[in-house]
């Protein structure tokens, strides 16, 4: 693997970094204050920021070049450093139309959607006009094993009728969220991995009821939110099924690869910024007669964080490169590795930065608390750590099974 970024990637890195300096960092405080005061409303400057990013060509950069005319033409490897820059300010990804869960959902539609589904939903998503949610997890069953999902999708005439209860539907509280990708079972008697299907459900379909926003460590995470949603006799036309009945598991595997690596790329950016903030802070403060940066335990923390970030970054670049060359399936072990490593790494690095900031580290005056939460939730979302370890362990052992 060539570790040198391409010239195109370097140029875009400069452009994204300049955009962040000029348009994103200066808005951080205002964004936070607006969200504290206005529940489930989008920051008023967001649309004009999106227009600026689009005009600068910094738009949909996540969609790799194998999607042809839909893609701006980057590889996953080229995108990695750009997503890292966006991860320095968690909400900034949306400005570039590169935010979760939309990137994963757009990739599903680009990869598996019919031309009609693409025109109806992918086009406005790629234009940044609407947002989307992915409804897989259910409160009643251990959803880290997706074969447990119980929501029923029953064929009736030229419609599917959906019944079930979902939760942790990220983004579903956002007023711009207009479409859900819902996973359920079309045939509970089929083989374990072909019982599931995915259907497109417009958010305003009768029978869809948003029950409540779930709190994450006491915060509702407005304006995206994570909704609990009831689906009661929800009817959609049969054309809304993606790829066909029984293909849900296959789509889930295809979706979660890109979704996971994008989170990892952003997490590395968050960790990198946390380290930079930590270094600046300990250079400025004096305790017990010397700069905090002169204490050896602090230097060790800084050195350890730098090692942790660089290891995670290189592993993530290796995963991106492997996806580019062998597809998500060919890169599955590396994707599991980064999903295990990056969220925990972010928690560790950010925790050291919080400690070095003293009380300031846990309050709203730095983005550190929010970054720690981001790392912590990704240890669960898109598959808990243990599940990735379970599967990676299984794949690894298998390689040496000579019996
Ligand atoms: C903030 C946030 C956002 C989310 N966004 C979405 C979303 O947009 N859409 C969506 O569908 N879901 C979403 N999720 C749900 C997330 O994907 C699930 O929480 C996760 O898959 C775990 O499922 P579960 O909560 O049912 O836990 P369970 O399946 O009940 O698992 C509980 C625990 O059991 C342990 N465990 C499970 N399997 C194993 C194993 N093989 N070996 C060892 N231990 C194991 C793990 O510690 C695991 O955390 C989100 C979750 C969070 C917290």
Number of E-state strands: 9
| Name of the CATH homologous superfamily of the largest domain | Butyryl-CoA Dehydrogenase, subunit A, domain 3
State the secondary-structure class. alpha+beta
> Roughly what percent helix?
40-55%
Write the layout of secondary structure elements.
Blueprint: H1 7-24, H2 28-37, H3 46-55, H4 76-86, H5 92-95, H6 102-112, H7 115-126, E1 131-135, E2 152-156, E3 159-170, E4 177-185, E5 196-202, E6 208-213, E7 226-237, H8 248-284, E8 286-287, E9 290-291, H9 296-330, H10 332-357, H11 368-378, H12 385-399
Parallel strand pairs: 1-4
Antiparallel strand pairs: 2-3, 3-7, 4-5, 6-7, 8-9
Helix pairs in contact: 1-4, 4-8, 6-7, 6-8, 8-9, 8-10, 8-11, 9-10, 10-11, 10-12
The structure holds flavin-adenine dinucleotide.
Flavin-adenine dinucleotide binds at residues 101, 134-137, 142-144, 168-170, 216, 226, 377, 380-384, 386-387, 390.
Report on the structure:
With 403 residues, this protein is of the alpha+beta class. It is 50% helix and 15% strand. The longest helix is centred in the middle third of the chain and has 37 residues, at 248-284. The chain has three domains: 7-126, Butyryl-Coa Dehydrogenase, subunit A, domain 1, CATH 1.10.540; 131-242, Butyryl-CoA Dehydrogenase, subunit A, domain 2, CATH 2.40.110.10; 249-399, Butyryl-CoA Dehydrogenase, subunit A, domain 3 (Up-down Bundle). A four-stranded antiparallel sheet has the order 2-3-7-6, with no helix packed on it. Helix 1 runs parallel beside helix 4 (76-86). A hairpin with a 2-residue loop joins strand 8 and strand 9 (290-291). It is built from twelve helices and nine strands. Flavin-adenine dinucleotide (FAD) binds at residues 101, 134-137, 142-144, 168-170, 216, 226, 377, 380-384, 386-387, 390.
């Amino acid at each position: 693997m060539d570790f040198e970024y391409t010239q195109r990637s370097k140029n875009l890195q400069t452009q994204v970094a300049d955009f962040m300096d000029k348009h994103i960092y200066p808005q951080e405080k205002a964004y936070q204050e607006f969200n504290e005061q206005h529940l489930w409303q989008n920051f008023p400057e967001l649309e004009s920021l999106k227009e600026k990013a689009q005009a600068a060509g910094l738009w949909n950069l996540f969609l790799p070049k194998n999607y042809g005319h839909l893609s701006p033409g980057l590889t996953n490897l080229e995108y990695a450093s750009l997503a890292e820059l966006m991860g320095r300010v968690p909400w900034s990804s949306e400005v570039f139309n590169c935010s979760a869960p939309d990137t994963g959902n757009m990739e599903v539609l680009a990869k598996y959607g019919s031309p009609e589904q693409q025109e109806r939903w992918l086009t406005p998503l790629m234009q940044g006009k609407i947002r989307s949610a992915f409804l897989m997890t259910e409160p009643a069953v251990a959803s880290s094993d997706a074969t447990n999902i119980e929501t029923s999708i029953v064929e009736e005439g030229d419609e599917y009728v959906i019944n079930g209860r979902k939760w942790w539907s990220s983004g579903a509280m956002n007023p711009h969220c207009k479409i859900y990708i819902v996973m359920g079972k079309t045939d509970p008697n089929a083989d374990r991995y072909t019982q599931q299907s995915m259907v497109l459900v417009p958010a305003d379909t009768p029978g869809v009821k948003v029950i409540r926003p779930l709190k994450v460590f006491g915060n509702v995470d407005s304006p995206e939110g994570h909704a609990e949603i009831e689906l009661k006799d929800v009817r959609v036309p049969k054309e809304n099924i993606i790829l066909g009945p029984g293909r849900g598991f296959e789509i889930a595997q295809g979706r979660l690869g890109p979704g996971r690596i994008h989170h990892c790329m952003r997490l590395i950016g968050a960790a990198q910024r946390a380290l930079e903030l930590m270094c600046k802070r300990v250079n400025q403060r004096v305790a017990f007669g010397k700069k905090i940066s002169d204490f050896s335990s602090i230097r060790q923390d800084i050195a350890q964080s730098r090692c942790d970030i660089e290891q995670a970054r290189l592993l993530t670049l290796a995963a991106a490169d492997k996806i580019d060359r062998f597809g998500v399936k060919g890169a599955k072990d590396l994707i599991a590795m980064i999903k295990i490593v990056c969220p925990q790494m972010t928690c560790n690095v950010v925790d050291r930065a919080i400690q070095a900031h003293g009380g300031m580290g846990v309050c709203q005056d730095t983005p550190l608390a929010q970054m720690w939460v981001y790392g912590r939730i990704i240890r669960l979302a898109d598959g808990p750590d243990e599940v990735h370890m379970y599967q990676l362990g299984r794949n690894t052992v298998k390689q040496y099974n000579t019996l």
